[in-house]
Specification:
This protein has 317 residues and is α/β, with parallel strands linked by helices. It is built from 14 helices and eight strands.
Length: 317
């Protein structure tokens, strides 16, 4: 028998993307239950233990299962979530390694890997098998750069690698420092070639801006009410430095200012909402560049796209 098209010989995976608060986690669980899947989280901060309310991490629990301990939410195993100390910096290279290992484990059990998250570059690193530059941490340089604001870091990166600066989050000190570190070590960032590693169904959650704003505002109010500030206090008691708070970005940067009495509760809520909304817009800017994404407005549409992709004739919605 003649081998099928190249895409059919590659391993199938499903990727669910969209801006923060759009409902990626719930859609991933919905599809995992219907198509025998397991989930890999692609969130650059949900990987850290103890960063629960601040990152909107699903309220799962670690359980001992056959083959080891796994993070379970709504009966579905999740990977690359809640595994790293918040004091440690976790890189995209480490994430790619762990995610690929998880994909193989999931496939060995005869299940479908479903990647869900908003970290666009992290997802691309897996799906397209990006050959990322191997540059060891330069602790001396990092110590110097850590004293600078995100704005100064961004302007500095523009001078030494304008191309990388045009594609980076200018408000994320951790990524800015890493980009500068790479530029110092090997010159301007190399052009990274995309090579499809998997046969991938990309599903994007489409949400109107006004509706997304309401979702962000509602979720933020819930997280504040249910203990996001108390979580930050606990992290501080466990020895998390202010510098690390700022490096973790978004919610934790503002929570650090609040705990140091640089702003009040009302200002915290207002500034957090604005920062999260701007972050959501940056996410959408990234994802809109990917023409492979099939945008959906309902679980039903995502269900039928997945059914067609997996070549299933019989399944119930």
């Amino acid at each position: 028998m003649e081998p099928g098209p190249k895409s059919l010989r590659r391993k199938k995976i499903i990727v669910i993307v969209g801006p923060t608060a759009s409902g990626k986690s719930e859609l991933a669980v919905h599809l995992a239950k219907r198509f025998n899947g397991e989930i890999i989280s692609a969130d650059s901060r949900q990987v850290y233990r103890g960063l629960d309310r601040g990152t909107g991490k699903v309220p799962g629990r670690w359980q001992k299962k056959a083959g080891g301990e796994r993070f379970i939410y709504k009966s579905i195993p999740h990977y690359c979530i809640d595994t790293v100390s918040p004091k440690k910096q976790f890189s995209v290279t480490e994430f790619t390694r762990d995610a690929k290992n998880a994909i193989e484990k999931i496939r060995m059990r005869g299940k479908i890997p479903i990647i869900a998250g908003g970290a666009g570059f992290w997802i691309d690193a897996i799906v397209y098998n990006l050959n990322l530059p191997e540059v060891r941490p330069n602790m001396k340089l990092r110590k110097i750069l850590a004293q600078k604001s995100a704005e100064k870091l961004f302007h500095f990166l523009k001078k030494i690698d304008s191309k990388r600066a045009s594609k980076i989050d200018p408000r994320n000190p951790r990524r800015l420092i890493r980009a500068i570190e790479i530029a110092y070590a090997i010159g301007k960032s190399p052009k990274i070639k995309k090579r499809a590693a998997y046969d991938t169904l990309w599903i994007g959650i489409k949400t109107l801006p006004d509706i997304l704003k309401l979702k962000i505002k509602k979720r933020l109010a819930t997280r504040l009410r249910e203990g996001m500030i108390e979580e930050a206090v606990l992290l501080r008691k466990k020895g998390l430095s202010w510098k690390r708070f700022y490096a973790l970005g978004l919610e934790y940067r503002f929570l650090a200012d609040y705990l140091q009495k640089k702003m009040g509760r009302e200002e915290l809520s207002e500034r957090l909402f604005c920062a999260i909304w701007h972050y959501a817009k940056r996410q959408m800017t990234w994802f809109k560049k990917n023409k492979e994404i099939r945008w959906v407005e309902s679980k039903k549409k995502a269900y039928f796209l997945t059914k067609e992709f997996l070549n299933l004739q019989k399944s119930s919605a």
